[in-house]
Design brief:
Two copies of one chain form a homodimer.
Chain A lengths: L5 E8 L2 E8 L2 E5 L1 E3 L1 E2 L9 H6 L5 E3 L1 H6 L3 H6 L3 H5 L5 E3 L3 H7 L3 E3 L4 E4 L6 E4 L1 H11 L3 E3 L11 H21 L8 E6 L5 H14 L4 E3 L8 H14 L6 E3 L5 H9 L4 E3 L2 H7 L2 E2 L6 E2 L19 H5 L2 H9 L3 H27 L3 H18 L5
Parallel strand pairs in A: 4-15, 5-6, 6-7, 7-11, 11-12, 12-13, 13-14, 14-15
Antiparallel strand pairs in A: 1-2, 2-3, 8-9, 9-10, 16-17
Amino acid sequence: MSDAFSFRLIATDGAARTGEITTAHGVVHTPAFMPVGTQASVKGVHPDDVRASGAEILLGNTYHLMLRPSAERIAGLGGLHAFMNWPYPILTDSGGFQVMSLAPLRKITEEGVTFRSHLDGAMVELTPERAMQVQILLGSDIAMQLDECMRLPAERGDVERAMKLSLRWAERCKRAFEGAAAGRALFGIVQGGDDHKLRADSVRGLVDIGFPGYAIGGLAVGETQSVMLEVVGETAAALPAQRPRYLMGVGTPADLLEAVARGVDMFDCVLPTRNGRHGVAFTRFGPINIKNARHADDPQPLDAERSCPAARNFSRAYLHHLFRSGEALGGTLLSIVNLFYYQELMAGARAAIGAGRFADYSGEIREQWNARADLHAEDD
Amino acid sequence: MSDAFSFRLIATDGAARTGEITTAHGVVHTPAFMPVGTQASVKGVHPDDVRASGAEILLGNTYHLMLRPSAERIAGLGGLHAFMNWPYPILTDSGGFQVMSLAPLRKITEEGVTFRSHLDGAMVELTPERAMQVQILLGSDIAMQLDECMRLPAERGDVERAMKLSLRWAERCKRAFEGAAAGRALFGIVQGGDDHKLRADSVRGLVDIGFPGYAIGGLAVGETQSVMLEVVGETAAALPAQRPRYLMGVGTPADLLEAVARGVDMFDCVLPTRNGRHGVAFTRFGPINIKNARHADDPQPLDAERSCPAARNFSRAYLHHLFRSGEALGGTLLSIVNLFYYQELMAGARAAIGAGRFADYSGEIREQWNARADLHAEDD
């Protein structure tokens, strides 16, 4: 499909894998975490700080960008990389998930989905072909097929219908994506809810069509973590070893470790920035709610041993004050802390897998979280 | 009064002056612009970016900090420099101006001012002695006397009473400030509204008491620019040449050039960050309202020739999009652009005064603003 896009598996450790994805805008080391740049901005964080955190690839939201400022406008301005001043790899989703979660009204037919924009109420049509056109205009390095997402729990019949529709859309997407510039890749998305048989059918259907990478979609939509991990484990094991695997919209640091252990290579999630804006910092010692009164006089930084300057250079008392005072800098600093934390967690995972000790790494990380969890129980 | 604090006049050009203030936390080149860190944060801007803009000194607001998180707490955490992670010079105001503009209720007596906190409704007393104690606890390099500010226009009798009260408070402040660590300086504040006789009396009274620096207060509170500049010109001329002169709370780039021409050395103002958050960028070509629709497709940066990365590296279309989408990064980037602009304006003024061509410099800056003012009239 492309000259520039490739995935190379470097090492495996049980089901866990480390590798590298090469794109026209640079290399992505896996397992990789992709910060979310919803509206062409990782909320509250300067792109230089996103890069400094170690992020090698960002996710952009097709749904948001097609509505505002529009894919055509971004294309006219040189594409999403230039628009955001992010000259590194970008993955765009297809918009399907946001249509489900944000549009106040939507109608799904064989042709595609028609929805009401949450911004101005206009009716907008998103077909597989239009989803490809939008992502080609945005110029992302990795595009995602249009799929139908549904919340769980759902009736098996509905899940099956959506999964099969998503397969037919996958085929149309692949055809429509043939017009994309060389070097760009389109990923298929496995659907099938929490039904193992449907997930297996979806994998087979997608592999028959053939994609340079596969995502596991339709999870973290209401099911328990154990259900999610079971589906992830079975699905990842069924996917071709030589293609990258991307678990969409997941998750907490614990989710990431579990999914890496099951063979997932890529993640995206708004948690680092959303929790950061709400005053929750991810640290080696577990989450810390900086708004808690006990931080008001604490001169210690969040973690003096971290490479992240925001974690080292500001006292907990100061961060607490910023949140109490409604100063935007607080959310920015904690978002940076969290972005660094996620990247360091993945960098550690890559090194551990390379050294054949991922289970130990994962255990050590958890032990540290738990050691402090009792001490700081009021932070939960 | 202090070992470390000093002011050295380097050159004059007409009434305009360039010099340097030495403090225990570093040197400040004058004319200097001080960004405002109201609640121990320059709103929306990382301290590294504030420093990168060229700022050599920040202003902290005593009123805000004494109410939250409290001067005692900041002192316990090592002082305001450590608290904010700003190891460079800091000036704190005395709280008098915010008592006037923010407190929902206040009562002024000979002893001091009692006001209702705008945060929790508590009654708070601020005397000259307490204003000194608070600023000593904060650890600022330059403290300001407590004064009584009033809005203009005001009755001459009221202005005279407030000016004389401020003089008596100046004396009490000086006495109370004797307990401050060596190297810290206390400035007196000239009051007297728009009455030249009262201003002259205020200057005489303050100089009799004797301060290492003098501020011109009670301006930019409702009077016209020409009234303000007349008062500034006469007051600055009456102040001792060997002491720095600080015009409080002023102002626009044009105000700064005019006041520098009249012999002012220091400024503070919230305009760079406030206007930045509201989508207005200060540029060589005058103010640009980035929310204006005509920027939606403009691939040009705000100013490709500026040293400020935020002015060079992001298109107007992108900045426009960030504001239209409510992304906080927009306000942050424009605040940075404006902080750089103010610092570069002052750096240019310093160089021009040193070269004996400040009038030409000022004229060239204005010419550039005006050349584009017609073209971009819709930005006003």
